[in-house]
């Protein structure tokens, strides 16, 4: 099926959210990096728009934008730290694990299985 017309929706002033919606009927993937790549490559979103769609707009879609989805005082400080020279690599390195560490409720979890960052 065709991808959602994200570019037209954003240009019309809509807030677009991106997620995996893991289910066997339409999207049998839980890969957020793959969803990010599809959003930027096939749906016409910029890297910045895709980051927002996966974070703040995703939180808004489930009614939790006041608690999660962005780095702000008073919100949960859960983060994924990526091993990249730039956030602009997100669209192109989606088939490997590039999460260096995660921070959940203030605890840092190092990822020992991370793929090395590409050289620039």
Number of strands: 3
The first-to-last residue Cα distance is: 36 Å
Overall, the morphology is globular
What is the gyration radius calculated from CA atoms?
Answer: 15 Å
Helix-strand category = alpha+beta
Number of domains: 1
Helix count equals: 4
Strand content: 5-15%
Largest sheet: 3 strands, antiparallel
pLDDT average, as an integer? 88
Helix content: 25-40%
- Major β-sheet strand ordering: 1-2-3
> Would you list the SSEs in sequence order as H and E?
HHHHEEE
Low-confidence stretches: none
Key terms:
alpha+beta; 12% strand
Q: How would you concisely characterize the structure shown here?
A:
The protein has 120 residues and is of the alpha+beta class. The protein has helices at 6-11, 32-41, 47-54, 56-61, and strands at residues 79-82, 99-104, 107-110. β2 (99-104) and β3 (107-110) form a beta hairpin.
Q: What's the layout of helices and strands?
A:
Blueprint: H1 6-11, H2 32-41, H3 47-54, H4 56-61, E1 79-82, E2 99-104, E3 107-110
Antiparallel strand pairs: 1-2, 2-3
Helix pairs in contact: 2-3
Structural description of this entry:
The chain has four helices and three strands, in the order H-H-H-H-E-E-E. The protein has helices at 6-11, 32-41, 47-54, 56-61, and strands spanning 79-82, 99-104, 107-110. The protein has a three-stranded antiparallel sheet with strand order 1-2-3, with no helix packed on it. A hairpin with a 2-residue loop joins strand 2 and strand 3. The longest helix has 10 residues, at 32-41. The protein is globular, with a radius of gyration of 15 Å. The model has no long low-confidence stretch (mean pLDDT 88).
